[in-house]
Design a protein that fits this description.
homodimer; alpha+beta; Uridine Diphospho-n-acetylenolpyruvylglucosamine Reductase, domain 3; Vanillyl-alcohol Oxidase, Chain A, domain 3; 7-stranded antiparallel sheet; 18 strands; 34% helix; 19% strand; globular; FAD-bd_PCMH_sub1 (chains A, B); Alkyldihydroxyacetonephosphate synthase (chains A, B)
């Protein structure tokens, strides 16, 4: 079912890739060192193909099964402009932006496309939409920026009920700032940039900058337990979220089918098992988050990102650990392994021998120190606060870096990094066009296992590449530090452009996830579970932990109307269905 | 049912009051200013009565209904020494140490005394005990240090099933320290001092020092979402706890009735609703925590507690807020209101006109500044870390204090405070002997409501005192600071030694709790819910929040064998049963 294309009620990404329609693609022409890098690592000539955009008209979109009664109820609740059943909006809301999503959508493999996309404009409208959907026994899938990469936005294959995608994009306001408590009440549908713009205008920041920042929302961050790149200072979203409202099913037998959970803002509490922490990470299975009280901070007086080089990753990891246990309290700490360092250097615009990050004088110095240039690792450490704090913190960090044999190379590379930090998904789209599926997996461990899980995961991926018979590449960085450990963020690509390349990709992805499980990691540090990671949940939080989550979901949503199948899977999730070949 | 008194398998507090048998009582003779203070505030001559210890022999202890089959199973699991059915151990395990508990136990009002006290020595034994109890449809109540003050340790009145108190005191070891990740694996039954002793011996500390420290355990802290006095640096127990094991019921239809939840240690994760945060604060309703991976820290190089005076509480609150938002990052920040400042001064040993905290020269200085000595407020700020950090942090704090009109009075009072910080429960016991029930209630709010909730709660308590016709006293301090707000800790006493004094106490307690609800607070910041606070849960986390907790408990423990009635009450908890007079 389709209707005339009209102005969408909210911003949205293009149906076949990252970013808005018309965003500039990755400019390989400006990166002279990248094609040889890709040829070396993946054996692919990335200049060989012309890019042709897929056309929606070429794809067969299944008809909507939305019935008249529910349609009327939705229309009367949110108005005609905010109920969409046209092909484009339905396809946009079919998937997130994982590589599997992109591959499928470009091939016209749409799965269970939502029957309707609804755009509520208030908490009351969300409740009315859910009330109507529960009475009609429809399925509700909340939708924020659409950047999810763990298959949390797609309906279950074969879902017989009407599927309603609830796009929160109209609810994008910072409603209130409590300047004394440094908390702000923000609507769940606010995208990162829109929210920061509203906060910055009054001198505030949330300090939450995940890689998906351009296309993710406050509600999405909460629902997936997101973490931003400056979490070392500002905390994970779980720390930042101090109160919230969520529309959810009422108790069985109530006259109304829905109720509103309201958790007023608190710095801390001892009121039983934390309901706030149950909503965090619930991925739509408990309800639809409508607004939240979030910690905000005055924009820091001083801010800078220093770059450092280490002779190897071991030295960088040890320094990261010591910095995390020191008084320095940086706002960001990133250490790339040798592979990622090489990748970063290959993405420079300039044509210096080695990179845009280090010049020839530095190279000479490194060689003189006896460093193997194939093993060097770049690190970025961000500092924020009063000028005195920044000065002190830098002195603490510099001392630790030197003790691990590293060297400070100043602010230049950090400034560049800061400007480019949201560009990676465009490279991924470009590589996919070249027949190279690439994606990311991240995990956290105690510090005592950071090296082990890094080395073993790289080894497992390399073995998986070999098993598939395709060239592959994996790289990693420390992305978030805590007292007890760190998150390491792996990016991997495999040079298979064939029709079977998702089986190839799955084989590698499974090897990576299994390595996480075997070496003290978690299924995900901040991307969530969705369907993609649900096969590993029992290994991560033990069968008893999954049992507890299952009881929670069954108790709150006995009709399984709320994004069923995510986190705790009742059937067989996508990636495990191929597990026979693992 | 009783048996010969033998050496208890674990440390325990005396049945009728705080601390071990033979602990020195509050030494009023050394506090010349306290009797006039008590006469002034409460109209009671606290030197008038002789202390007589209650005798267990005077109390009628109901017989145990433990049957032979379960007894045999328990004996064969943990051995004869670790199964106790004698009166003393059963009475010790009947209640926590709230003032209501002490009043009841001294009057021989025992309620539903546990039928047996079991002391497992390992996680396997805990599982075997729970397995036997679930098969026998018995009730399990986990027991740590016994210091709970929210009625979380008592069986429901009229409970027809066998009640088993599971005392974790034999499981008191630090099993392992991961020096790289700075986490330690600690058994749940370890009391504060025993645990710190084991950690300190290797140069480590947990940094968790609640007022109950001497008589509370790792498992109890987790089960109640405890917070220690140095949480500004070390975090709440929820932050400190990185992994854990818990014995819990298996899914219905399983061959075994029990299973073990195992959450391996992680710095952070995105694996669905946080199961770790469901166990935190579960007060025995989901299972029995057996051991946990806890963050530890190297004992700080430098440590000091500075004292400050403010002309009034408003100035102290504003300074606390500014310190919390600064770079200073103290380990502790405490500000007493004028009433508590006066109480502290009245508890000094020396006979200087005003107190042991300020001398005459200081008094003159304050008077010269135009301060009203009735309004002055004392504050303690603790600093820890490298000497450079401590120096910097002090300079930041001193600047903020001065800007709010406060003054630094050096390290002396802080050192004294540090030595005496665990003594308050002995004063409470002493006052109770004098016919003055006293207890504490704490709550947290955003900074924007700290002054409001303080002033309104004091007003509500004073009105409640007047309504009861008894003199009363209430005082408060800021005990824990966060980015978004603070905890304020109220202590109140009412001069009613009559047989009806629990109705008087309840009237005041209800007024305090209701004020928390009306002014942005939470039912409890770190004492938990138990039965005592359950009547306010719907006002705190909304009816939908209680619904979620109820579904969680029902799902995990459908037979209601695990500490039923706590947090979410199915019947009518104690304190609300008098609510007609509220």
């Amino acid at each position: 079912m389709s209707q005339n294309k009209s102005k969408a009620p909210a911003k949205y990404q293009k149906w076949w890739g990252w970013g808005a329609d018309g965003d500039k693609p990755y400019a390989v022409a400006n990166k002279p060192k990248f094609p040889p890098f890709a040829m070396d690592k993946l054996g692919v000539d990335i200049l060989a193909k012309d890019l042709t955009e897929p056309r929606l008209a070429d794809i067969d979109v299944p008809a909507s099964i939305l019935g008249d009664e529910l349609r009327e109820q939705l229309l009367s609740t949110v108005g005609a402009d905010n109920v969409r059943t046209d092909d484009e909006m339905r396809v946009v809301h079919s998937y997130g932006k994982g590589v599997r999503d992109l591959v499928r959508v470009r091939r016209g493999i749409l799965g269970r496309v939502p029957d309707v996309v609804v755009y509520p404009g208030s908490g009351d409208e969300v409740q009315a939409v859910m009330e109507a959907c529960l009475r009609a026994d429809a399925v509700l899938i909340p939708y924020g920026g659409g950047s999810n990469i763990v298959a949390a936005l797609e309906a279950e294959p074969g879902e017989q009920r009407v599927v309603v995608s609830v796009d929160m994009g109209r609810m994008n306001k910072v409603l209130e700032i409590d300047e004394q408590a440094e908390i702000a009440l923000i609507q769940a549908g606010a995208l990162g940039p829109d929210m920061e713009e509203q906060l910055n205008a009054k001198g505030w920041t949330l300090g939450h900058f995940p890689d998906s920042f351009m296309w993710s929302t406050v509600g999405g961050w909460i629902a997936t337990r997101s973490t931003g790149s400056q979490s070392d200072k500002y905390g994970d979203i779980a720390d930042i979220t101090r109160g919230l409202e969520m529309v959810m099913p009422a108790a069985e037998g109530s006259e109304q089918r829905t109720q509103v959970l309201s958790l007023h803002p608190l710095p801390s509490y001892s009121s039983g098992p934390s309901v706030r922490e149950m909503v965090l990470g619930s991925e739509g299975r408990l309800g639809i988050i409508t607004q939240a009280w979030m910690q905000v901070h005055r924009i820091a007086e001083a801010r800078e990102i220093q770059a450092y080089f280490y002779p190897n990753y071991d030295a960088g990891l040890k320094a990261a650990e010591l910095i995390a246990h020191s008084d320095a309290k940086p706002m960001m700490l990133r250490v790339s392994d040798a592979a990622e360092t090489e990748f970063s250097m290959a993405n420079g615009k300039k044509s210096s021998t080695k990179s845009h990050y280090i010049n020839k004088a530095m190279q000479k110095l490194m060689t003189a120190k006896g460093w193997n240039l194939e093993e060097i690792c770049i690190s970025f450490v961000g500092f924020e606060g009063s000028p005195v704090h920044v000065r002190y913190a830098k002195s603490v960090v510099n001392k630790i870096v030197r003790a691990q044999g590293g060297m400070n190379v100043g602010k230049g590379p950090g400034t560049l990094f800061d400007q480019k930090k949201y560009d990676i998904p465009y490279i991924r789209d470009f590589l996919l066009n070249m027949g190279i599926p690439a994606d990311v997996s991240e995990t956290a461990t105690p510090w005592s296992r950071t090296k082990e899980i890094h080395d073993e995961t790289v080894k497992a991926a390399e073995q998986a590449f070999a098993e598939t018979g395709h060239k592959g590449f994996i790289m990693c960085h420390v992305s978030h530090s805590y007292h007890a450990g760190a998150c390491q963020y792996f990016t991997f690509a495999v040079a298979d452009g064939s029709e079977d390349n998702m089986a190839t990709y799955d084989h590698v992805k499974r090897a990576v996830q299994q390595s996480f499980m075997e070496h003290g990691g978690t299924v995900s540090h901040h991307h969530g579970v969705g369907e993609e990671h649900s096969p590993w949940m029992e290994q991560d939080i033990s069968p008893a932990g999954v049992h507890i989550q299952r009881k929670l979901f069954e108790g709150v949503d006995p009709g399984k109307n709320l994004n069923p199948g995510k986190i705790v899977h009742d059937g067989k999730p996508g990636i495990s269905s191929n597990s026979a070949d693992a």
